[in-house]
Specification:
Blueprint: E1 8-9, E2 19-20, E3 26-30, H1 32-61, H2 73-102, E4 104-108, H3 111-144, H4 146-163, H5 168-173, H6 175-187, H7 195-208, H8 211-218
Parallel strand pairs: 3-4
Antiparallel strand pairs: 1-2
Helix pairs in contact: 1-3, 2-7, 3-4, 3-7, 4-6, 6-7
Length: 223
């Protein structure tokens, strides 16, 4: 797949200068070994430190605003499962639109890598939500009010993706997840809970990365 191909359109009749079209995006195949390589580093540098901080705060104070309990399970599951499906589909469609603009996309080469990446994103979602919704939004919301918590948690969530080397177009796209889950964490009935927002988050990530691009390639929506 490499750098993608450049198509050329010739003027009618075969005369006149050729007009280059937009280069086709480069679809980079990944396998289990490729994914394990970045996951090891990501686990040590990001997810484990996040998990340690969240666990330490919860064990020391057990604040209700962190959302570490299931809350009202019915509404949480209804929102999370339905939202996960919708966000998966929406993230896939967004990836179709954004990949030509970005110019490249990593796509799992086989089912084993799809399963590995999906499993990792199912772990990633709750940990990120515990940090940005539980600690930041919940903590600042309890201290300064819901608006301050939502603004701080969402802004931090969106911008921190830039630290991972994401292009700005992808960083800004994370607001499409950050804003709905921030509102849901605040508005869902019952005590605060990370259950529903974690399920939606995982669905969106799986649609945008790994399983979603693999499905799009299988459906020939990405070439």
């Amino acid at each position: 797949m490499g750098r993608g191909r450049v198509d050329v359109r010739v003027a009618p009749g075969g005369t006149g200068p050729a007009r280059p079209l937009r280069p086709a995006p480069a679809l980079v195949a990944t396998r289990v070994g490729d994914s394990l390589a970045w996951m090891r580093s990501d686990l040590l540098m990001r997810l484990l430190p996040f998990a340690v901080v969240v666990t330490a705060v919860w064990v020391a104070w057990r604040p209700a605003w962190m959302g570490m309990t299931p809350g009202r399970v019915g509404p949480q599951l209804a929102f999370g499962l339905a939202g996960g499906v919708v966000s998966f589909a929406a993230a896939c469609l967004l990836q179709v639109a954004m990949t030509p603009l970005r110019g490249s996309l990593r796509v799992p080469a086989n089912g084993a890598d799809v399963a590995l990446q999906a499993s990792y994103y199912l772990v990633n979602g709750p940990i990120e939500e515990a940090v940005f919704r539980g600690l930041l939004q919940g903590g600042l919301g309890a201290l300064l009010g819901p608006a301050a918590g939502i603004a701080a948690g969402t802004t931090a969530y969106v911008l921190y993706h830039r630290l991972g080397g994401w292009a700005w177009i992808d960083v800004l796209a994370t607001a499409l997840v950050g804003v709905p889950v921030a509102l849901a964490f605040w508005l869902l009935p019952g005590p605060p809970s990370l259950l529903g927002v974690s399920l939606l988050h995982a669905g969106a990530t799986c649609g945008f990365l790994g399983p979603g691009p693999w499905l799009l390639r299988r459906l020939r929506l990405l070439r």
